[in-house]
Give the backbone structure.
Amino acid sequence: MSQTERVEVLVLGSGTGGKLLAWEMAAAGHRTAVVERRWIGGSCPNINCLPSKNEVKSAEVADVVKRAGAFGTAATGVRTDMVKVLARKRKMVDELVAAHLERYRASGAELILGEARFVGAKTVEVTLKDGGTRQLSGDRVFLNLGTRPFLPPIPGLAEAALTNIELLELDRVPERLVVIGGGYAGLELAQAYRRFGSRVTVVERGPHVLAGEDPDVADALERLFADEEIEVLSSTQPLRVDGRRGALSVVVRTGRGDERALAASDVLAATGRAPNTTGIGLDVAGVELDARGYIAVNERLETSAPNVWAIGECAGSPQFTHVSADDFRVIRDNLDGGDRNTRKRLVPFCVFTDPPLARVGLNEVEARRHGVSVRVATLPVEEVLRTRTTGQTRGFMKALVDARRDDILGFTMFGADAGEVMAVVQTAMIGGLPFTSLREAILTHPTMAEGLGELFGRVGQRGHEAKAGP
Ligand SMILES: Cc1cc2nc3c(=O)[nH]c(=O)nc-3n(C[C@H](O)[C@H](O)[C@H](O)COP(=O)(O)OP(=O)(O)OC[C@H]3O[C@@H](n4cnc5c(N)ncnc54)[C@H](O)[C@@H]3O)c2cc1C
């Protein structure tokens, strides 16, 4: 048995919040170690956000080139070389990993490559990647263990399916891709692979894709997919997957109750996430889980074990990199004597389809569920003059304003530059500005953000709940 090494700060998992915490603590002079079993820097730079957006960009370029004639530039014989798409993505990941290693070096935090398992309170045994074990104990322990793809118990699925990790490592264009799951990760990849040349079907068990979004938003996305010849089967249950990779059949029950077999060369399971909290002795460490298997935390991200915190997805936080980063800030500020919590955080998100979808604050479905009275204004983006120059006329903006006060309660945009325009509204919300500030602001012409003036100009009088379709 190896001797137990003591560190002041022990971080398990090198995801976004964990690595930020480690670098800051180490730079402040605390003896810090991070244990990471596979992905230096966590999921975002290696397998999730950035690799997927990298390939989404390649797909967007493929699409623009195919449509180049409409802009006056002739392009013939356009085809995608997936070997080169993959090489571009891998180069980015390699560069990001190198940048992470440099941050570890500069901060003084030790990165230990291996799998951690608790053997006592605040004490882990690490099975090192290069062989052997080390035992470490931390005065303070931070769990940033993340999640992994969850595959529902559909016969044949586990044997046949690719997850986003394997799909993003393909050096070929799948001939027929069936995407199971109409959440944001599935939709981004469905559109990208369609644009690379795959025939794509999305199977969604709910009544529409993007569960939780307003029906007009989901409709707009489904219309985009129809125009790009991506089949979307909603209210459809996958029953089983037959055959072998390359020649598969996904048997589904459609909303009408019929059984249908979808031929597929490849199947992507985009069916949710499961926390990496099992089999690593969290019980030995006194760390309790909630009913869904995520680490139970309070609003300061403290676990049931003293001096043990959880960060990011494993703590049940909203599943975004920017939230993992904010979890770090909550913990850091509290350790510095502050009083910060995870309540009432304004969490924006963006779905990187083309055009993208972005939202901050409430949508109509949520406002109704919470009994909040709102004034709703919408603006088709074709009315924003910028889109007449770019040709990106698809989509709309939607704002929710309190019915009785002038507070902005939510903003959704499906359209070009949605994520960037949303950030403008988010900033106004953070600053507590009334919607009239954006209505009256001088915004640059011709930009997409300029549309905010017209959008907020459409908000009705106080006391009048107004609703307009896009
Ligand atoms: C396809 C896809 C696309 C996405 N795109 C976006 C996006 O565009 N924007 C966005 O904000 N979010 C996106 N996400 C979500 C985002 O990737 C995560 O929310 C984000 O990476 C934060 O993760 P985290 O910090 O909780 O943990 P992670 O980054 O997952 O880190 C956890 C780390 O812990 C390690 N680990 C686990 N168990 C052990 C152990 N026992 N010992 C040692 N190490 C261990 C893991 O190897 C991993 O590196 C996407 C997700 C997917 C699936």
